[in-house]
Structures are given as C-alpha cells and as structure tokens.
Task: inverse folding
C-alpha cells in the first residue's frame, strides 16, 4: 500500500491507493481545544453593550455573546442568517411589519436579507450564531454600534 500527502486549505489529507481505489484515511486540521466553558462566567467577563465576544467557532460559524440594552440600528445581512438565543433577560427583534419578543431559552433565526433591529429595555444576555466574520451591523456602518473587531474570550 502506498500513501501520498496532499495539502488542501490547511488540511493534510492522507490517501491510500489499494486495489486501484483511492481511499481517504483521515484529515488532520489545526488543533482545536476541547475544553468546556461556562456561559455565566463568560458573560461576567465584560459589561459593554452591543459589542459581541466570540466564545466558540465551529463549521465556519461563530458563537458570540453579547449584552443588549437600548435599541440597535435597523440593518440586514445580505448573505448571512443569524440566530439569537436569549440566555438571560428579555429582548425583542423588530421587523418593519411585526415584533418578536424573546425571553430566557427563546430563540429566533433572522434569514438573510431581512431588515431588523434588536432591542432590550433592560440588559439582556444573548448568544448569537452566525458565519465567522459577519459584521454585527450588516449592511450599515455605525460609529457607535459597528464592532470593528470581535475579540475571543
């Protein structure tokens, strides 16, 4: 049996040529940490509102924590869906024709291209699931709200 290495976008793929068939043996990627994290402890690490923090990444997606209070600007994401999952508090996601209220344990997926804004009368802690690199203000830039960097905590 003969083995050949082939590089493909940060992955090393091992193939075996046996009986005239090409068989993939395994794929080695960059080392991923498999350590648990505690959401309560992570939320305690920051106090700023509307500035997301990355706590995990998987399958080209990021899981972000954000504290909300007040109203976010109207915006949409041209190519990205985003999912909101409330951890603590209450929030609403406003659309031009209706409002969805979310409490602890409630989640909502906002499809790409749909204009919306998030709001919370009192502080609310939220997990946001979206493709890596998604700008929090979507199609707009706002001096107060656009997160130029999304730090990992």
Result:
């Amino acid at each position: 049996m003969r083995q050949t290495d082939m590089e493909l976008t940060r992955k090393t793929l091992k193939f075996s040529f046996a009986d005239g068939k090409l068989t993939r043996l395994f794929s080695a990627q960059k080392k991923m940490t498999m350590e648990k994290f505690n959401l309560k402890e992570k939320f305690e690490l920051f106090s700023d509102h509307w500035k997301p923090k990355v706590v995990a990444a998987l399958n080209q997606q990021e899981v972000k924590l954000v504290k909300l209070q007040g109203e976010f600007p109207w915006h949409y994401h041209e190519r990205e869906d985003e999912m909101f999952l409330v951890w603590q508090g209450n929030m609403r996601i406003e659309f031009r024709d209706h409002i969805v209220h979310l409490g602890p344990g409630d989640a909502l997926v906002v499809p790409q291209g749909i204009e919306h804004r998030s709001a919370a009368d009192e502080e609310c802690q939220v997990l946001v699931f979206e493709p890596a690199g998604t700008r929090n203000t979507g199609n707009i830039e706002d001096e107060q709200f656009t997160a130029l960097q999304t730090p990992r905590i």
Q: What stands out?
A: The radius of gyration is 20 Å. Residues 1-31 form one domain. The chain has a mean pLDDT of 87. The longest helix spans residues 39-43.
